[in-house]
Amino acid sequence: MNTKKATILAVSITLVLMFVGVALAQAPSGPPKPGPEHQKLAYFAGKWASEGDMKPGPFGPGGKFTFTETCEWFDGNFALVCHSDGKMQDLSVKGLSVMSWDSAEKTYTYFETNTVGEIVFSRGTVQGDTWTWDNESKMNGKPVRARFTLKQISPDSAAYKFEMGAPGEPMKLVMDGKQTRMK
Fold this sequence. Notes:
The protein has two helices and ten strands; from the N terminus they run ααββββββββββ. The protein is α+β, with helices and mostly antiparallel strands. It has two domains: 1-30; 36-181, Beta Barrel (Lipocalin). The chain has a ten-stranded antiparallel beta barrel with strand order 1-2-3-4-5-6-7-8-9-10. The mean pLDDT is 88.
């Protein structure tokens, strides 16, 4: 073998080994693990009983409502999957929701669909013991903003309120209530 071929072979082997070393150094050390933001969602895990008061307005005459919600970790512990079952006057509603952390947007996400055809997508934040979820949608073809605020009272109870309003206008209280973890 002449020296030119030997040099080319040596450089080729060095480059291959260098790229293999870089690839191995970047290989993940196992599956991703939930971060502290995901772990904050643990507050919602379990079965909850909720009761509240719907204010008279565009959704009807108002009145009392009750529902239960069971939230469990989805495999991997990156998201909670929740099933709810409620009653408001003569209307029964079942819902399915998913809560998680969106690391790209640095916000929590909440998606819900239910048996009365509602679909909700909200982004949320947590400051201390208060969770705030905001969304924008349309009602009767007009834009509307909504905000759900939940304040943790204890590890097993919380108070909440739901407000709505047109963009640029003050939000109005639509409902408020409390929830308690069922043992």
